[in-house]
Write a structure and sequence with these properties.
Layout: E1 2-6, H1 11-21, H2 25-28, E2 35-42, E3 45-52, E4 55-63, E5 67-73, H3 82-97
Antiparallel strand pairs: 1-5, 2-3, 3-4, 4-5
Length: about 100
């Protein structure tokens, strides 16, 4: 699942805001309780390992000049929850960039 989140911040400011607020990610997950491990393997890519409700999900955020794109690798067992997860990503992604 790919979810673009448009912004007008420029790449550097978007990256700065994501880095400074990455500790808030666990509370933004559906259900409100999750363990989230964050790494920055590249300057413009944040990788996430999310564990919640007995499931693990890998995700990434690619920082661009006018949008950040959240990429979530949903396992087949969680595909049913894709609309709820997409909605949460769109809503909370905007919060992280404010």
């Amino acid at each position: 699942m790919r979810v673009p989140i448009p912004h007008r911040l420029g790449k550097d400011e978007a990256r700065r805001r994501l880095k400074s607020r990455s500790g808030d990610l666990a509370g933004m997950m559906p259900g409100g309780m999750a363990d989230v491990a964050v790494t920055w393997p590249e300057e413009d890519r944040m990788n996430l390992a999310v564990t919640a409700m007995g499931s693990s999900v890998d995700a990434a955020v690619e920082v661009g000049d006018s949008a950040v794109t959240v990429i979530v690798d949903l396992p087949l067992a969680l595909k049913f929850f894709e609309p709820m997860i997409r909605s949460a990503v769109e809503k909370n992604g905007q919060k992280l960039l404010k």
